[in-house]
Design goal:
By secondary structure, the chain is an all-alpha fold. The chain has two domains: 10-50, Arc Repressor Mutant, subunit A (Orthogonal Bundle); 64-185, Tetracycline Repressor, domain 2, CATH 1.10.357. It contains ten helices and no strands. The protein has helices at 11-25, 32-39, 43-46, 53-70, 78-94, 99-105, 114-126, 132-154, 156-163, 168-182. The protein starts with 10 loop residues before the first helix and ends in an 8-residue tail after the last helix.
Length: 190
């Protein structure tokens, strides 16, 4: 009886298996050797599709950020877009074990034109009247806030400790609103 061939190895399959391994083992347990074993191949086979673990983490981070950008509700003002993005990002980080830690440690994409990538990140806010420089600074600040918050939430002992003091959802919303409201001081013509 003939054995069925394993599905072809490609980037999507590789990243999907990496997420499954991340859920089971956490970021510390995500290694190229373990990933190869999960896929039923030898580790060198992975390097036909990705350069190294850094590129894998970058691809995984892209897959975490993408639904956050797509999940921002329609906004009539840049402040509303940033608040929507902050909430969508926090929710996306929570969908993956160690999602915030992975995004905080993933190297920058190697295969992207920096100017083009910056323009795409800034585009939703530029459409709402911000210049690219401010848009990028504001997005980076919201990402940093959400990363920090999600890290506290994912840290079991710290989460339990903070949970006795505050409501995570309400406190995140208060902090995000304060952060975004403060950006008005950085805008010309205020």
């Amino acid at each position: 009886m003939a054995r069925s061939a394993a599905p072809a190895l490609d980037r999507d399959r590789l990243v999907g298996a990496a997420f499954a391994l991340l859920e089971e083992e956490g970021l510390e347990g995500l290694s190229m050797r373990r990933l190869a074993a999960r896929l039923g191949v030898q580790a060198p086979a992975l390097y036909w599709h990705i350069a190294d673990k850094g590129e894998l983490l970058g691809l995984m981070a892209q897959d975490i950020y993408a639904p956050a950008y797509a999940g921002v509700p329609h906004a009539a003002h840049w402040r509303d877009w940033l608040r929507g993005f902050g909430h969508a990002l926090r929710a996306t980080f929570a969908t993956h074990r160690d999602g915030a830690r992975l995004c905080a440690s993933a190297p920058a994409p190697r295969d992207r034109d920096v100017a083009d990538h910056a323009a795409r990140i800034a585009a939703p806010l530029a459409a709402l009247g911000l210049d690219q420089g401010r848009a990028l600074a504001f997005v980076a600040s919201v990402i940093s806030f959400a990363l920090g918050w999600a890290s506290f939430e994912a840290n079991g002992p710290m989460h339990d400790y903070l949970d006795e003091m505050l409501d995570f959802d309400e406190s995140f919303d208060i902090g995000l609103k304060a952060l975004v409201s403060g950006f008005a001081d950085a805008c010309p013509g205020r």
